[in-house]
Specification:
It contains nine helices and five strands, in the order ααββαβααββαααα. The chain has 209 residues and is α/β, with parallel strands linked by helices. The protein has a five-stranded mixed beta sheet with strand order 3-2-1-4-5. Helix 3 crosses helix 7 and helix 4 packs across helix 5.
């Protein structure tokens, strides 16, 4: 689905909230709902109304190099950035949706400038008293959510690169925990690691009592 009005003004949701009296509008997004291993990471980003971030868009449309270029620019220019992380153990205990919302709560609470309005990617409301709006494909429609998606993705990728040194047999540096053929073969060969989500298909079949 195309959203031509957002392409004309991808900051229109932030402007609309500002016109309604809100002053600290945070975009919220996550990275890592789908992988078989590693945490889910969320970010909340409050952008100023004057910023220079050429190329800012959904993190999935950018290369790793482009995300790494934008990441420090977002950190420098943002009014506030908050990051939340929930582990694979918690994901298995609570399910991925609840873990994702928990990581979003963490990210929002860690903003050094409190948000008074949230733009949340997806369809699920974050459990908070802060007024909010969910946006389907929000990472394409809102620059604040785009910024959050990049921060979350870069942070999570760096975490998985670090884990690759601890568990080199799984190839986390290459696939970041996603269910590639090579990753599934490694799970079948080596068994799940402590980082693997043991309730996920592709992992649970290889658990041994």
């Amino acid at each position: 689905m195309l959203f031509p009005e957002e392409e004309i003004d991808p900051f229109r949701f932030e402007r609309g909230a500002h016109q309604s009296g809100y002053r600290a509008v945070a975009g919220v997004d996550e990275a890592g709902r789908g992988p078989l291993a590693g945490p889910v990471v969320s970010a909340a980003v409050i952008l100023p109304f004057e910023f220079d971030l050429p190329g800012l868009t959904d993190s999935k449309k950018l290369s790793a190099r482009q995300r790494e270029r934008l990441y420090p620019m977002i950190q420098r220019q943002a009014v506030a950035v908050g990051i939340g992380l929930v582990s694979a153990i918690n994901i298995d205990h609570n399910n991925i949706l609840q873990a994702t919302l928990q990581s979003m709560q963490q990210a929002i609470s860690r903003l050094n400038c409190a948000a008074d309005y949230l733009l949340v990617d997806g369809i699920s409301l974050v459990p908070t008293t802060i007024p909010q709006e969910t946006l389907k494909k929000g990472d394409l429609r809102s620059l604040s959510i785009s910024a959050a998606s990049i921060v979350a993705k870069v942070v999570r990728d760096r975490i998985m690169l670090a884990y690759d040194k601890q568990y080199p047999e799984y190839g986390f540096a290459i696939h970041k925990g996603y269910g590639t053929a090579a990753h599934k073969e490694a799970i079948a060969r080596c068994g799940p690691s402590p980082l693997h989500r043991k309730t996920f298909r592709g992992v649970k079949e290889h658990l041994h009592d």
